[in-house]
Amino acid sequence: xxxxxxxxxxxxxxxxxxxxxxxxxxxxxxxxxxxxxxxxxxxxxxxxxxxxxxxxxxxxxxxxxxxxxxxxxxxxxxxxxxxxxxxxxxxxxxxxxxxxxxxxxxxxxxxxxxxxxxxxxxxxxxxxxxxxxxxxxxxxxxxxxxxxxxxxxxxxxxxxxxxxxxxxxxxxxxxxxxxxxxxxxxxxxxxxxxxxxxxxxxxxxxxxxxxxxxxxxxxxxxxxxxxxxxxxxxxxxxxxxxxxxxxxxxxxxxxxxxxxxxxxxxxxxxxxxxxxxxxxxxxxxxxxxxxxxxxxxxxxxxxxxxxxxxxxxxxxxxxxxxxxxxxxxxxxxxxxxxxxxxxxxxxxxxxxxxxxxxxxxxxxxxxxxxxxxxxxxxxxxxxxxxxxxxxxxxxxxxxxxxxxxxxxxxxxxxxxxxxxxxxxxxxxxxxxxxxxxxxxxxxxxxxxxxxxxxxxxxxxxxxxxxxxxxxxxxxxxxxxxxxxxxxxxxxxxxxxxxxxxxxxxxxxxxxxxxxxxxxxxxxxxxxxxxxxxxxxxxxxxxxxxxxxxxxxxxxxxxxxxxxxxxxxxxxxxxxxxxxxxxxxxxxxxxxxxxxxxxxxxxxxxxxxxxxxxxxxxxxxxxxxxxxxxxxxxxxxxxxxxxxxxxxxxxxxxxxxxxxxxxxxxxxxxxxxxxxxxxxxxxxxxxxxxxxxxxxxxxxxxxxxxxxxxxxxxxxxxxxxxxxxxxxxxxxxxxxxxxxxxxxxxxxxxxxxxxxx
Length: 756
Fold this sequence. Notes:
Radius of gyration: 27 Å
Number of helices: 19
CATH architecture of the domain at 33-290: Distorted Sandwich
Helix content: 25-40%
CATH class of the domain at 33-290: Mainly Beta
Distance between the termini: 26 Å
Strand order of the largest sheet: 1-9-10-11-12-19-16-15-14
Strand content: 15-25%
């Protein structure tokens, strides 16, 4: 694999540490030091302002703007889009000494250090600033987002004059005037501003989409100061002139409440009695609970210990099920790339993480799809299909991608929703969800699949023509293997679900049939098309063909592509990418992982060894799938190599695009990399299975998952596996193919020779 690490951050098992300020790494570091609590997120930008390259990014889940993409064109081609909009900069601060503004791009600083503590969610930055007049000031900035009260954000600034006494000016504002970086526009109209002695507030709404946002802040200062109001068109705040004394620290605290409710009086009450330490302790306790239930411990590999905890930390920051109306954007709340849109990654990569760490959050992710079902039905009609065609990129449920080759040709968002329903119901046994919501989605998706495909000229096979599968380096292909496989799975699962519902709850089945006007001939049609689905395969070699004609494409040696040419989309002409057998991300291997029990080890080996050398991993989702399958095939060195790439994708900026935001959904894949890879977990069979291995060089590792109301702890050592429950009474599963009923008494199991 041609990509190499750009190592910058210090290695620490619980912290992300930046020592010394490097302007060249600033934008990527902004992404790494992002904070979020699902409701809101802020990049690690410098609140005091920065005149170099950077992105002052403050985002709120579900707050978006829209834009026209041109005149009406061909039917089915999107001409409007929606995107997560850059919102209020509630951290905005300006610090001035002797008329000189603090700006790390030009100011003289030393002893710079920034630390993100993943045990409590606190981000701290410190340095010594020397003004042109020779005054030295130690500055310490702290910020965190409350995980319990997700509307609250907290900031503390401590300033210590080291060689002088004198005035320090601090201006704190709420600023709705920030430009959206991608569109170079501001999308906010201010509706209300108000200032009181220790408080200021502002409210605005987005232009066009009319999304309302309120921001109110209270300020405390423990020094001697005077204060005045500051107001501009889209800003309001306070200016404090602090009479600072040599070697005496002075602190300024801002606690902010952000909310989309139009209740200024009610909003401000939430922070009237708020206290810094109390809020920090609450958030630390929240994180303590996360680590008690979801931590992964690696003994003997500090880099990947840091990496995997960073992945878990960011997943929990991005989403924990606080609002069923939210989804997970590809960059979470860390940047504007992908416009804040959610993709099919949610159900295929993120959902497993939440199923085994926060089941309510998993259910809420699927509820987003149910609540946007009507939009998916409209999209299907636009594409001349019945049923529901879920968008490839969305915030509100509408298709936001105007690249027709993606928006119109990719069916995997729809089949991923079906897969997500299957996976969630299988692991949760939540029959109520399936009956009330899941079955309806499945019917509408199957209707789309039954009208989007077609029969071969000889009438023997059904399948999908002119599609784009998960490998986005191949478009307008026929019979993409993943697409056909998932289409077959979805229609069969829908039929099975309806049959079970009819058997278990005849009244609910009758109501569903009447609501959706389902008849027996339609179900029979799904059955016929599923049974005759073409799955391209070389039977002699047990090799699945990614799509019709893939085996005849010109070959490219991906290891000979210079690292300077990544990402390829930025350096290769668009059409050049499509003219060979190079793969962006796993396609055949993807469904072989998702439905692992359906394939023999020989089939897995043949397909892995054919497709892995052709994969360039231009998608951040790719390395983990390869690592998991390499572990299963006992290719230990390959598995570990891909694992390192996965866990430290962002920390070491492998794709050289860390400035755009974190690869949030691939972070979930890195978690799968440990649990499904080295842990050998498989969840697609009749019972949960584990077949743990241990990478060479590790002394041991342990992980925790929540399953069927039990918290399972698995500890893997060189020669044995220790497994037992931390919570719950009994969990049935297989370990190395043998049945166990685990309790809170630890079982010790010797690792079989073939797995060592």
